[in-house]
Amino acid sequence: MADFDPREELAAIARALSERLRWLERGGVTEVPVGQRLPRPPKAASKGGAAPSPSQAPSSMPSGDGAARLAVVRAELGDCTRCKLSGGRSSIVFGVGNADAPLMFIGEGPGADEDRTGEPFVGAAGQLLTKMIEAMGFARGDVYICNIVKCRPPGNRNPEPDEIAACEPFLKAQVAAVRPRMIVCLGKFAAQTLLKSDAPISRMRGRMQAYEGIPLMPTFHPAFLLRNPSAKREVWADLQLVMAELDRLGIVRPRK
Ligand code: SF4
Predict the structure, then answer these.
(1) Residue 118, in any domain of the structure
(2) Which of 14, 117, 144, 224 has the CB geometry, 3.0–4.6 Å to 101, for a possible disulfide?
(3) How far apart are the C-alpha atoms of 196 and 168, rounded to whole Å?
């Protein structure tokens, strides 16, 4: 049996780590959050081929799990100052939930509770969203939840077009990382952003649409439902269409 040489082992680990960091750097990644695993370059890199950059199209992302792909997106976002919302935030509210979720909910932007905790949909509207998710036969942790802008608009105002445009690449990258089978857009800003439409949410909802080939249902935002409880009936009708489509696609709703 060959002698074990700890110095050679250490050198091999250092080479592998250096290779991985160089690959991330080529993709524009400048930091990886503490506690997150470093994404691996695709196999081609270790055979001497050029590894795709992690900032390239979704199909070129690391071939590992959703968590690794999301880690790349989060690392690219970094301590973002790409728009003026960065000035007033306490936290970047990136997203939460199952990184390989079949179902993704996309809202508008963080409020005060979300800014404080760093997690989307934790206030009153978030509790209503959790009830909606559970009524569909999922636990909150089974799905993935995020917003179109990751930083709180001051005074809970609407996000402005330049802010949405600055953050949109990261939303798209999150969708590409999670690879959901279905998307539910909560409110007009999420639906208008992904569908490239200026139609009001009242006209978009109730009809299954598509984003990049993924079925997408626009519906009212839970915060709107808190102010207009009578609209819950329409939202439930929208979610029933979502459930029917999930069933048609053979996606298990674990708590149905
Ligand atoms: Fe960056 Fe998005 Fe926050 Fe603007 S809203 S600073 S683009 S993370």
Answers:
(1) yes
(2) 144
(3) 12
